[in-house]
Amino acid sequence: MMKAMLQEGYGSSEMLRLVDRVIPEPGPGEVTVEVAAAGLDAGLVHLLEGRPFPVRLAMPLRGGRVLGLDCAGTVHAVGEGVTDYAVGDKVFGVTVTGDGALAENARASTAKLAPKPRGLSFIEAAAIPVSATTALRAVRDAAGVQSGQRVLVLGAAGGVGHFAVQIAKNLGAEVIGACSTGKLQLVRSIGADQVIDYTTGDPLKEGPFDAIIDTGGHRRLRQLRRALQPTGALVLVGAEPEAAPLGGMGRSLAAALLNPFTRQKLVMLASSEDRQALLDLTELVDRGALRPVIHRTASLEEAPEAITGLGRGSGTAKTVVELQQI
Predict the structure, then answer these.
(1) Is 312 within 8 Å of 247 (Cβ atoms)?
(2) At what angle do helices 161-170 and 275-286 cross, to 10 degrees?
(3) Buried residues in 153-190 as b, exposed as e (16+ CB within 10 A)
(4) What is the CATH number of domain 131-268?
(5) How many beta carbons lie within 10 A of that of residue 95, not counting itself?
(6) Helix or strand run (H / E) with residue 150
(7) What global pTM score does this model have?
(8) Which of 34, 119, 181, 214 is the most exposed place for a label (fewest CB within 10 A)?
(9) In this protein, which residues make up the domain named Enoyl reductase (ER) (predicted)?
(10) 45-77: per-residue pLDDT in tens?
């Protein structure tokens, strides 16, 4: 048996309960990971609250589920057909939805796992998979950032944003990071060339930019496009306004519909994690070009309260749940 944080319904953190469950058996192409640490991200808030409503259709809640995607730990058991991992291997990556990382053991597909970076602790490794992969997809793949370009990262101190700043810098860009007053030093510390307090100034006035990575989700599409070069790229990662009919997705859908009719590149990012992305991120870590900032660690019992501090722009860097001290 194991301890796990089970989501029993949609709503607030009161829908989460610490329970005893049977350790999951790995299926074909899967392993069971003994979880040392589990990263939290704003997407967990959407899953917990079931917003926007399409989330409930895409990932229905049937009989409860264990939340959490990011994990780092050691292989506990291997499933049929698995040859690239053995019991005891140190790994990090993304767990199977429903048998998530907020548990002492979790299932994971080997297609979404990689060896843990040697230079990172389990806590640091658990902070990387979802948020850093999203940043990689946004900056490198969607925006196609190149050396010498000017890049604006909105929400530069957040889970995705602080990785986006580092990845854009590694690609040789001039990076302008926007965040709130209390997070300015954090964004400076990760290498931003210029940091703007959006509570006292408008970062869009510093344009035009070759690329804007918007992880906040609050600015109008029209405003963002005006701050772009005529052939610049806008990547929409965040979609937070709760009052919007689609929970903020309307802006992203509008960008996708408009994209074929403009010289600007307007991207509604739909990120996915895989082994190659994790290996690419590991290479950046090994070169000292990427490092997660851990804002807070919490125990499994404290996970519900920690999740309430995420989303809606309130999160800072990464929060990680520590399940074992290794």
Answers:
(1) no
(2) 70
(3) bbbbbbbbbbbbbbbbbbbebbbbbbbeeebbebbbeb
(4) 3.40.50.720
(5) 30
(6) strand 150-154
(7) 0.93
(8) 181
(9) 11-321
(10) 888 887 766 667 666 677 789 999 999 999 999
How many residues are given for the chain? Answer: 326
Q: How far apart are CA 148 and CA 143, in angstroms?
A: 14
Instruction: Tell me the two tokens of residue 307.
Output: 């999740």
Cα 295 to Cα 40, 234, 315, distances in angstroms: 11, 28, 9
Over residues 163-190, the pLDDT tens digits come to 999 999 999 999 999 999 999 999 999 9
3.90.180.10, 3.10.20.30, 3.40.50.300, 3.40.50.720: which CATH number matches 2-128+292-322? 3.90.180.10
Q: Where are the domains of the chain?
A: 2-128+292-322, 131-268
**Domain 2-128+292-322 shares a fold with domain 131-268:** no
